[in-house]
Specification:
The complex is a heterodimer.
Chain A lengths: L4 H10 L23 E5 L2 E4 L4 E5 L8 H13 L6 E5 L16 H28 L6 E4 L2 E4 L4 E4 H9 L27 H6 L14 E7 L12 H5 L5 E5 L2 E6 L2 H11 L13 H11 L5 E6 L10 E9 L11 E6 L4 E5 L4 H12 L6 E5 L13 H13 L3 E4 L2 H7 L6 E9 L5 E10 L6 H5 L5 H5 L12 E8 L12 H21 L3 H8 L5 E4 L2 E4 H15 L10 E10 L3 E11 L5 E11 L6 H20 L5 E2 L2 E2 L17 E6 L18 H13 L10 H5 L2
Parallel strand pairs in A: 3-4, 8-16, 14-15, 18-19, 24-27
Antiparallel strand pairs in A: 1-2, 2-3, 5-6, 6-7, 8-10, 9-10, 11-19, 12-17, 13-14, 13-16, 17-18, 20-21, 22-23, 23-24, 25-26
Helix pairs in contact in A: 2-3, 3-4, 9-10, 14-18, 17-18
Chain B lengths: L1 E7 L2 E7 L5 H8 L18 E4 L2 E4 L5 H4 L3 E2 L2 H4 L6 H8 L9 H14 L5 H7 L10 H19 L1
Parallel strand pairs in B: 1-5
Antiparallel strand pairs in B: 1-2, 3-4
Classes of the chains: A alpha+beta, B alpha+beta.
């Protein structure tokens, strides 16, 4: 909704046909004083006189391939020469107010806006070419960084038209390319930063170094209000260059090198005393979750057949549990802040540049425009870097130290003090009629809404409880009576976004429980799913669009490609499957083969996945993200969990919080199913939810043991 | 503080650091060779892997005093133009997602291929047993190693 001219200009600056009018004509030639002219019709594109094209990337790269995908969209619609593209990363400011990257899909939200921006630029370049040749603009076209007049076989490079194009009026509604004319979109394209990565030249947050920078390692208070009972300050200060800076979250050990800061912190040996008696324990929390899932909650979906349901002759019940997880990205949290009296400069590996700018400005009581945020590459994000806690730490310490400061978290800090994927319990029941058809479905999720932003918690918005029970309330199957509920359970530890957030737990419970139903009925679980997807092809559930035809198609593809239905004679080998529609957009199914050894250790041997994620920008990127999602799912099913004792996370390393390694890696096949959708949908998160339930279902096929709690423990499997 | 003399990527270097400074911080903080990453500090994840005489070592586990007089290759020294067969293979298989662990993975692969010019899947698994990639690029790392084996064989012919 556009409510004011200012808001309109801001929206326009972000794109759409009106984007171009938000930029003053005078700025078309860059700063005006530059020797070489530039054609810069909007914030996203700058065509340079030397023939290179600089594209601004407005989303943060954390390995999801967004810099490549967004560049592909811009370059294709601009008809630019892919080999002459340069990228710059956007910083928050009046032109860029929506840089935050996460939740649903960066590609989908940027798609239309960027195409309009690029189409406007192409339109102006073609007009400039036509004017130069004094020919009708309609007889000219563009390709590969050139304007072409085909009847006279004349060509002009974009670079040669820069000055002319900049003088032209901005088109209000430039025509977009027909999808048949895409030259870059839809072609497998390699990571645009690949060369920098393999030569070690890629710069992540942790690699930031500015003159005079100090290094800080923070001994964080393990619970709110904790005060050190004892600490060996003298020992810490004996480490050359070490200073101790008490701050709002603990004690910062600041030094001239990373190692001195780390060493000083170890020497400090803070004793934080005893935790409060009511400190959080995860074991007790799971009991509360289980009880809560039996209670009445907020109804997130309720459907009953108008003429009453057919009688239920038997009902199946089960309770599923999803644990606490950490993100554990390879690059631990870090940030460089340089706070001065009248401004602040930040270098941060962040998914949330705008939120970061705002929060830092509020913290420093500075106008946001005085806070410059430089977004670096991220060594993994997964939702962790949507929070800005680590940036505020750097800002606070830089302000006190009166110097630029890099805060670096150790691996143990990262495991213990981040925010977590919240645990949840799911109570499900399915009622079968005399013909064994599923006629009723109940799914109550007991969980906890993110608590990183207290203001958000205080003002529950419409649709909140549906978001919280994503994967439960949007169950895609045709069932006459459906009721899903959400019960909020208080959770005092920090918890927030994690790859595929609320969906992963609900889909685990839903897809594994449906497998239970299939087993009890003695019917093939794939046949059952296809059966339960007969009915209206498309259905709107709250705000989500579920397309059962697309879901059936991905199921049929994995059925055919995996050899589903072939019986295996090998002992303790099994095959399972699961499917999901993520956020009403991306449809994905997978078949998983597992084998269990004598010690009860499960190994995933093969995963076959099929995905329909709408129009595909970069098929290579989609495959890679599905592979990554599969490994993430394997980690969550067979790797570690975070447990809390006396308020503290008990895990502190990759040794006690296991994530998938090379030896856990199965053979993977990814099939991209052609889609009729005209726009792209997200894949990075969508690939995660069906993997864990498919593994659990495969284990049941192999061993007869039903997994209702993640992660899967070999002790449990070896139990008689 | 002592003066430590070492050779990195063929260049002789002298730095003044605490004896117990892990080599990863000597490389990153003192020599500004940030291609070598810090991931865990306890030798588990492999992000800080570098080469010594072609063998992969974890630079977070080598104190500066022990590095004195030794010679190392970091990702920056493998080749600046990505022409090494492993770097090439990594690009051709489009391995990297976030890319943070990849310098360590590439150098681990170089070390593996030195000992086992044609490794089995089990040898690949063993060599990369403790390398953590949270993006899950392992299937492509496997493919890239196979591809590098192919190129290196052709070169030898």
């Amino acid at each position: 909704m556009i409510t004011s001219r200012r808001a309109f200009l801001k929206t326009a600056a972000l794109g759409g046909a009106s984007l171009v009018i938000a930029f003053d004509n005078k700025r078309l030639l860059g700063a005006g004083k530059e020797a070489t002219p530039q054609f810069k019709p909007n914030g996203w594109i700058s065509v340079n006189a030397d023939g290179t094209v600089t594209l601004t990337i407005g989303k943060s790269e954390m390995g999801q391939g967004i810099r490549t995908s967004l560049a592909m969209i811009l370059a294709d619609e601009l008809d630019a020469d892919w080999s002459r593209i340069k990228l710059v990363q956007a910083s928050p400011g009046p032109d860029f107010i929506q840089l935050d990257t996460g939740a649903v899909s960066s590609v989908a939200s940027s798609w239309t806006m960027l195409r309009h921006a690029a189409a406007a630029a192409r339109h102006m370049l073609i007009s400039a070419g036509a004017a130069r040749w004094k020919v009708d603009r309609a007889t000219c076209s563009a390709a590969n960084g050139e304007v072409i007049h085909s009847s006279s076989k004349r060509r002009l490079k974009y670079g040669a038209l820069v000055a002319d194009a900049a003088k032209l009026p901005l088109p209000e509604d430039p025509p977009l390319k027909n999808s048949n004319d895409f030259r870059i979109i839809g072609k497998p394209t390699k990571c645009i930063d690949g060369r920098e990565i393999v030569t070690g030249a890629a710069r992540y947050g942790i690699d930031t170094k500015i003159p005079g920078m100090l290094y800080a390692s923070i001994e964080r208070a393990p619970w709110r209000g904790a005060v050190p009972r004892r600490s060996q300050d003298a020992m810490a200060l004996a480490v050359p260059s070490v200073r101790l800076i008490p701050c709002s979250i603990g004690i910062a050990v600041v030094a001239d090198t990373t190692w001195a800061a780390l060493k000083g912190r170890t020497a400090l040996a803070v004793d934080w005393g005893d935790p409060p008696k009511d400190a959080f324990e995860s074991e007790g929390h799971f009991k509360r979750l289980a009880q809560s899932a039996e209670q009445k909650g907020i109804i997130t979906r309720k459907e009953d057949p108008p003429g009453g349901n057919s009688p239920t002759v038997r009902t199946i019940y089960a309770t599923y549990f999803y644990p606490f997880y950490a993100h554990a990205p390879l690059e631990t949290m870090n940030c460089v802040a340089d706070v001065r009296d009248d401004r602040c400069i930040i270098w941060a590996p962040t998914q949330a540049p705008n939120a970061l700018q705002e929060e830092v400005a509020r913290f420093l009581s500075m106008p946001p425009e005085k806070v410059e945020v430089n977004v670096t590459l991220m060594g993994g994000g997964f939702g962790r870097r949507l929070a800005v806690d680590y940036a505020l730490e750097a800002v606070e310490i830089s302000r006190i130290a009166k110097a630029p400061v890099q805060v670096l978290w150790t691996r143990a800090d990262d495991m213990r003090f981040g925010h977590f994927q919240a645990a949840s319990a799911h109570r499900l029941s399915a009622g079968l009629n005399s013909k064994d058809a599923v006629v009723s479905w109940r799914h109550t999720k007991a969980g906890s809404p993110h608590n990183l932003n207290p203001a958000e918690l205080a003002k529950p918005r419409e649709g909140l409880h549906q978001d919280l029970s994503r994967g439960a309330y949007d169950i895609p199957y045709v069932i006459p009576s459906i009721e899903t509920q959400y019960v909020t359970v208080d959770l005092p530890i920090r918890h927030g976004p994690w790859r595929s957030s609320f969906a992963a737990s609900s889909v685990f419970a839903r897809e594994a429980f449906l497998d239970e139903v299939a087993r009890i009925r003695g019917i093939d679980p794939l046949t059952l799913r296809l059966e339960m997807l007969q009915g209206p092809d498309t259905v709107k559930i709250a705000t989500l669009n579920v397309d059962r035809r697309r879901l059936r198609r991905v199921l049929e593809v994995v059925r055919d490609k995996s050899g589903w239905g072939e019986t295996t004679s090998e002992a303790r080998h099994g095959r399972g499957l699961a499917c999901n529609v993520y956020n009403g957009e991306t449809h994905l199914a997978c078949v998983v083969d597992v084998a269990e050894d004598d010690a009860g250790k499960v190994r995933v041997q093969r995963v076959v996945a099929a995905v329909d994620c709408g129009l595909v920008i970069n098929p290579a990127g989609v495959e890679e993200q599905v592979e990554g999602g599969i490994l993430w799912g394997i980690s969550s099913a067979l790797g570690g969990e975070i447990t809390f004792v006396k308020g503290m996370a008990q895990q502190s390393s990759y040794a006690d919080y296991r994530v998938a390694l090379m030896r856990d890696t199965p053979a993977i096949e990814v099939h991209i199913v052609p889609s009729e959708e005209k726009q792209p949908f997200g894949i990075t998160e969508a690939a995660v939810p069906p993997i864990a339930p498919a593994i659990a279902n495969a284990i049941c096929a192999a061993t007869g043991k039903r997994i209702r709690r993640l992660p899967i423990r070999s002790e449990e499997l070896t139990k008689a | 503080m002592s003066e430590i003399r070492l050779t990195v990527n063929g260049a002789k270097k002298a730095v003044n650091v605490d004896d117990d400074t892990p080599l990863v911080w000597v490389l990153r903080d003192s020599l500004s060779l940030t291609g070598t990453k810090f991931g865990c500090g306890v030798g588990f994840c492999g992000s800080c892997t570098i080469l010594e005489n072609g063998k992969a070592i974890r630079s977070c586990q080598v104190p500066a005093s022990e590095a004195n007089g030794r010679s190392f290759i970091t990702i920056e020294g493998l080749s600046r133009d990505a022409s090494h067969p492993c770097q090439r293979a990594w690009l051709d298989e489009d391995v990297a997602q976030c890319g943070f662990c990849q310098p360590g993975m590439i150098l681990t692969a170089c070390s593996l291929l030195k000992d086992h010019p044609d490794p089995t899947d089990a040898e690949i698994d063993a060599a990369l047993a403790d390398g953590v990639c949270r993006c899950g690029t392992y299937p492509r790392i496997r493919k890239a190693i196979r591809r590098a084996v192919g190129t290196m064989k052709t070169k030898k012919k």
